[in-house]
UniProtKB/TrEMBL annotation:
Gene3D superfamilies: 1.10.3730.20. Its main location: membrane. SUPFAM superfamilies: Multidrug resistance efflux transporter EmrE. The lineage of its organism: Bacteria, Pseudomonadati, Pseudomonadota, Betaproteobacteria, Nitrosomonadales. The keyword Glycoprotein does not apply. GO terms for cellular component: plasma membrane. It comes from Methylophilus rhizosphaerae. It is a multi-pass membrane protein. InterPro entries: AA-Vitamin_Transporters (IPR050638), EamA_dom (IPR000620), EmrE-like (IPR037185). This is EamA domain-containing membrane protein RarD.
């Protein structure tokens, strides 16, 4: 019982660190596009991030064996091309704060898909947290006032759907191969998914890269923190929490992204966005409290005749 509570506490801490990294990175990525094309940046982030992970695998003498190649390839495509590549495309014309929020419709797609695919149901007070988060997203999205950046917003939502599918597939891989090393599960999809991303970056025309100090720092931030470390934290949390709950917990990131864009990029949120962020914060607090509570003892029914 205590061990389970400890594991959940560690998972929630990992989600908090992950949210801070991913939340601030929306400003970093948006600013980096002044120096590099979106697909070029996505390719550098994913490919070099994979190299860092394989270096760690080698140094720590962990297994570098590739297991379930087709599954790992699909997982890599979802995480790198579908998620990272598409969100970078969305950032070209859309604001950092709004793109962050729409990408994080991911938890709702995850909850929708986790029910039939993983058998993970939402129970009790979790419904209140889900309702609060849904209302928060509606307020921030403000569907009655869709502007000229509709295509960018659509790309952001598609990025969130791809991320949700990768979360579901990650849980399925963990169930099929319970002994699979966490870093191995992170490294191989990142490497396999980065190769098509490199090809796309090479084929799509883009201005010459301007190797300014900010771009170098942005690449380092994305490769080491947002690429390698963040995916490790994400999969670590998925191992210890239901996919839907882990996804909802990570929703702090877009809230931080909106605030960071407000401070650094002058993307001032309106009253609707502020209301939505407040609802999301309430949802996160409620989920954290529920996950810290020890689970109730299951009722065991004796077989007939005993």
């Amino acid at each position: 019982m205590d061990q389970l509570v400890k594991q959940r506490s560690q998972a929630l801490t990992a989600l908090l660190v992950l949210a801070v990294i991913w939340g601030y990175n929306w400003v970093v990525m948006k600013s980096a596009l002044d120096y590099v094309g979106p697909f070029q940046f996505a390719a550098m982030r994913t490919f070099f991030g994979a190299l860092v992970l394989f270096l760690v695998l080698y140094v720590t003498r962990r297994s570098m064996k590739l297991i379930a190649f087709p599954t790992m390839l699909v997982l890599g495509l979802l995480q790198n091309v579908g998620f990272t590549g598409v969100l970078m495309w969305a950032l070209v014309e859309g604001g950092a704060g709004k793109t962050a929020v729409l990408t994080y419709t991911m938890p709702f797609w995850t909850l929708l898909l986790a029910w039939p695919l993983l058998g993970e149901r939402v129970h009790g007070w979790q419904w209140l947290a889900v309702l609060s988060a849904v209302l928060g997203m509606v307020f921030i999205f403000d569907p009655l006032h869709i502007r000229a950046d509709a295509f960018s917003m659509l790309l952001a939502v598609l990025s969130g759907i791809s991320w949700a599918l990768s979360a579901i597939m990650t849980k399925q891989v963990q169930r099929r191969y319970p002994g699979l090393d966490l870093m191995n599960l992170t490294a191989w999809p990142m490497l396999l998914g980065s190769l098509p991303m490199v090809l796309i970056a090479w084929l799509v025309p883009a201005p010459a890269i301007q190797w300014a100090p900010y771009l170098i720092g942005a690449v380092f931030f994305n490769v080491v923190l947002c690429g390698a470390l963040a995916w490790l934290l994400w999969i670590f949390a998925l191992q210890r929490l239901p996919a839907g709950v882990a996804s909802m917990g990570s929703m702090l990131a877009p809230v931080l992204g909106v605030f960071a864009a407000w401070i650094q990029l002058n993307e001032v949120p309106d009253k609707m966005e502020i209301t939505g962020m407040s609802l999301i914060i309430f949802s996160l607090a409620l989920i954290s409290i529920l996950m810290m509570r020890p689970p109730s003892k299951p009722v065991t029914l004796s077989p007939p005749g005993k």
